[in-house]
Amino acid sequence: MAKCTLTTLVLLLVVLILIQETHIVEGRPLKSLGISSISKKVGRSRLNTSSKVETEDHSLDAFRPTKPGNSPGIGGLTINGTLVSTGGFQGGANTARYLSSCDNCNWVEYPKALAAQRWYSTQATLPDGTFIVVGGRQALNYEYILPEGMDNKKLYDSHLLKETTDREENNLYPFVWLNTDGNLFMFANNRSILLSPKTNKVIKEFPQLPGGARNYPGSASSALLPIRLYVKNPPVIPADVLICGGARQDGYFRADRLKLFDAALNDCARISLNSKRPAWKIEKMPAPRVMSDTVVLPNGEVLIINGAKHGTSGWGLAKDPNFTPLLYTPNKPIGKRFKELAASAIPRMYHSIAIALPDGKVLIGGSNTNDGYRYDVEYPTELRIEKFSPPYLDPALANMRPKIVNTDTPKQIKYGQTFNVKIELKQANVAKENVMVTMLAPPFTTHAVSMNMRLLLLGISDVKKEHGDVHQIQAVAPPSGNVAPPGYYLLFAVYNGVPSFGEWIQIV
After folding, report:
1. Which PANTHER family does the UniProt entry name for this protein (predicted)?
2. Average pLDDT value over all residues in the chain
3. CA-CA distances (angstroms) from residue 5 to 65, 82, 263, 454?
4. Residue 401 gets which letter from DSSP?
């Protein structure tokens, strides 16, 4: 499973070019460790088309040079853990590139794999593990990625993208979430639809979300909230989408042309995709936010972090960093879902990311509002990386943290399969209602969008003590690819809200 871990960390740092080390422990920043002492040879970073080498492959302890032939765009993992990156810049807009997870694998590129140029687009995984790519600059359409080595020629026009293109665009990096019925929720600017990837027909149009623009450069952030599963699932499995923050419709124009930095939006909107009468339910955040990152945590809570309080995405178009993370608890009533956490001291605005790690912490990096590396400006290019520890990693809760016995837990499961997760936990009595088994899909994160981020709360049929501190949880795998596309997930055992270290598991 180590090879899959390496591939997943490639996902993190295809979008992270800035490397340094800092930590936030229990929500509190520690002293920066300074500029990274890791050096890269001249030519190892692809900053222009004359340079043919890039260093973007990262594990926790080592770097290895890889060599994409052009600037990569977005990405996702195949069923077997291969990274597929589509689109890009500097000659890479029509390219599909593949990076397998062996120790010495390198990029394999197909420069005409895409029918349209894709830059600032979204890549989503379908129920069979294949990919759809939606939108991008001057690409008001979508297409499907064919098997490796084949060039796609077929485009599907998107009325949603055509009808939501403002003067400032406001519909780049559209939010695309796979619903539990196998259809795709697509959100652009302030409108959304449910699209069938089988027939390419719009099944449903959702109500317009008022208040402003939510996609780049308006740049709200979004999450598919944790999907609750049972031993016997209902015919319709609920799925909710959350969208937080954003900017006024003309915010980019006002910041870019008039140098007026308007307050970002301060609301979160939530909608139930499978409701008979879906409607947006709005609640206020403690402060406005644009360019934030939303991270679904392994215990089902949601972290909202990074971003700015004024302006929009773009070079130098935001001010007033929002340093205070928010913890959002989906199953609490409206008005009680938000909790402010300890603030960071590092601005994280344009080109920043946040993503959950196997140890339950959150990797935070990036932020460069400048067209180039600049250190003599109000918001210098940021080279530090942080690890944020959510409240569940408070040392006082250490005795409640399970440990998965991975030698007795399967590495591969099938849909609907009942399987055992063995844990070590220093608790005398472990009741079924206090235990969760969750599966977290590794996302591709860039520009406030975490593509394919997905957390499944599995059905549990039994929990029993075996001996000493060892307990066995009997869980049921997701029912189909509509609910959980095939591939690798991080498996967590959670006790009273405290997650274990994640172990890789593959569903086929």
Report:
1. ALDEHYDE OXIDASE GLOX1, SECRETED PROTEIN-RELATED
2. 89
3. 17, 11, 39, 17
4. -
